[in-house]
Amino acid sequence: MERILVIGAAGQIGSELVLELRKQYGNEHVFASDIKPASPDIMEGGPFQVLDVMDDKQLIHFIIRHRITQIYHLAAVLSGNAEKLPIPAWHINMNSLMNVLEISRICEDVKKVFWPSSIAVFGPSTPRQNTPQLTTMEPITVYGISKLAGERWCDYYYNKYGLDVRSIRYPGLISYKTEAGGGTTDYSVEIFYEAIRKGNYECFLSEDTALPMLFMPDAIRGTIELMEADHDKLSLHSSYNLGGFSITPRELSAEIKKHIPDFNVTYKPDFRQAIADSWPQSIDDSIARRDWGFKMKYGMESMTKIMLDEIRKKLNTK
Ligand code: SER
Fold first, then answer.
1. Who is most buried in 35, 63, 143, 210, counting CB within 10 A?
2. Using a 6 Å cutoff on CB, does residue 12 contact ligand 1?
3. Which of 193, 206, 195 is nearest to 264 (CA)?
4. Residue 306 within any structural domain of the chain
5. What are the residue numbers of the active site?
6. Residue 306 buriedness (CB in 10 A; 0-12 / 13-18 / 19+)
7. How far is the CA of 108 from the centre of ligand 1 (A)?
8. DSSP letter (8 states) at residue 283
């Protein structure tokens, strides 16, 4: 039976991934961890440990003691925050990955590792429409540079040591359970909260900034499907492009207005505009679809309805 460790369980992806993995593998088989406490359902629904992924001794001790067989390493500093503190962000993003890869290589029980990459690996010289898996990659952010270097290390560990690393280049992730922190695509989450709380939102990207997005249920399902996919079907151990749907703030606010007619959005682009302008507007994910059958279920309309319903419930408004 698998014994799965999720690092970064209090984060935007981790807080939902842990719950889904526990449904599928049993509560006691999924060990959640984070540097800070997670939500009560994560901490009380199964094993939880405060763990600093930067502390390799603590990490290896935990992995050996619990005979961990799979690791999802989700802890990272996102694009916007990383630009404010480039060197610490580089250390956190790179050293945490190197700790996980090295420990997984050494510990024989660990058979598979998942690590998230991002559309941030691309840069201004990349074709921005239907961006292919393999293309020019000259990221201009610390976050993107660390993700591109990380992809190369994942591929290196696979080729050199046979470590079965699997990865997805996530587009912007839209979710209601846990808010993201410090990313460039985060307007697409904030806008829902502000629409419900205040009826207006000041967007930090300009109205026609197109970016690829994915609703969290699709991201979680896709991630677990990739981890469960037959090894022989996978042609990539660096990271798979995943497309989602492409939207602009203008399009998303128009969709929200269908439900909240008085909703008003103003635009005040900040430093994240330059980051968004360097990223793809749409992604070609045909290799993910071919290799492990990825299929998106939610588009902008179905996602918007669920986001509004769930955030209203969460904030106790009608
Ligand atoms: N969503 C992330 C960010 O905006 C990119 O992977 O930083």
1. 143
2. no
3. 195
4. yes
5. 143
6. middle
7. 33
8. B
Query: Would you state the structure tokens that stand for residue 87, as one six-digit string?
Result: 């060197």
CA separation for the pair 257, 302 (Å, rounded): 14
Residue 182 CA: nearest ligand 1 atom is 7
Amino acid at 286: S
Q: Apex CA 9: angle with CA 8 and CA 10, to 5°?
A: 95
Q: Are residues 119 and 186 in the same domain?
A: no
pLDDT per position as a tens digit, 28-67: 999 999 999 999 999 999 999 999 999 999 999 999 999 9
Output phi, psi for 50, to 5 deg: -75, 125
The enclosing H or E element of 54 equals: none
Residue 315 structure tokens: 């904030």
CA distance 11 to 17: 10
Reading the block at residue 142, the tokens are 């610390």
226 lies in the same domain as 118: yes
Instruction: Phi first, then psi: give them for residue 245, nearest 5 degrees.
Output: -120, 150
* Domain-located, residue 307: yes
Query: Which pTM value belongs to this model?
Result: 0.96
Residue 290 counted as domain residue:
no
Domain count, the chain: 2
Q: How far is the CA of 45 from the centre of ligand 1 (A)?
A: 28
Which tens digit of pLDDT belongs to each residue from 206-246? 999 999 999 999 999 999 999 999 999 999 999 999 999 99
Q: Which residue has the tokens 């994560």?
A: 42
